[in-house]
What we know:
Layout: E1 3-9, E2 18-24, H1 33-46, E3 69-70, E4 73-74, E5 96-100, E6 109-111, E7 114-115, H2 118-125, H3 148-158, H4 165-169, H5 176-187, H6 196-209, H7 220-224, H8 232-247
Parallel strand pairs: 1-5
Antiparallel strand pairs: 1-2, 3-4, 3-5, 6-7
Amino acid sequence: xxxxxxxxxxxxxxxxxxxxxxxxxxxxxxxxxxEMMDMHNExxxxxxxxxxxxxxxxxEGICGMCSMFINGEAHGPDRLVTTCQLHMRKFKDxxxxxxxxFRANAFPVIKDLAxxxxxxxxxxxxxxxxxxxxxxxTQDANAIPIDKHDxxxxxxxxxxxxxxACVASCKNASxxxxxxxxxxxxxxxxxxxxxATDRVINMVNQMDEEGFGNCTNTGAxxxxxxxxxxxxxxxxxxREYLTASLKG
Length: 248
């Protein structure tokens, strides 16, 4: 395939960025999107130009590193996949593809398509832990009965990889789907009950301090989430927050 790429180029966080148009030929439909970007960067380097900086690591849809806003959608036109799992067969010969970084005040651009998502780390550090000893002398798995539905919901919430697609997809750049997934992961299990009150208060407060917006209730975050994290988690976080606030 022959494609036109319109890519956001920005030298650093303080520089003024702009869209730059490139042309790439002989792209295989079997390539992943990141492989296409690798191919494009090799051509840029061969021409003595600066390659496009973008985030990537495992390339298996696990790490949450790859983050590109492709044709107006976080991770591109496919569903339940990260950018590294998106394949070029989703595009047609002659297509124009617009590639931007995840845009949010709390995700400052480092360079080109790479953004600083350390705000997510600080939110988790604010309360995403348990003091219960879950290693070493562990109890038998059946010693503490847990409702199967609660266990399933907890594991579903834990599948969040913190990529930031929810933030990029929200018109208010809200991080509530991410935070609610981390809160729900613990709130549904007995091990998470000890710090439940402090956890939700601290994580929500940190989310606000980082400059993320409020939930819009439009559901774009759930649609674009590569792991299909449910909006039910946001409702659960709101209930947890209200309960914690009433406890003082």
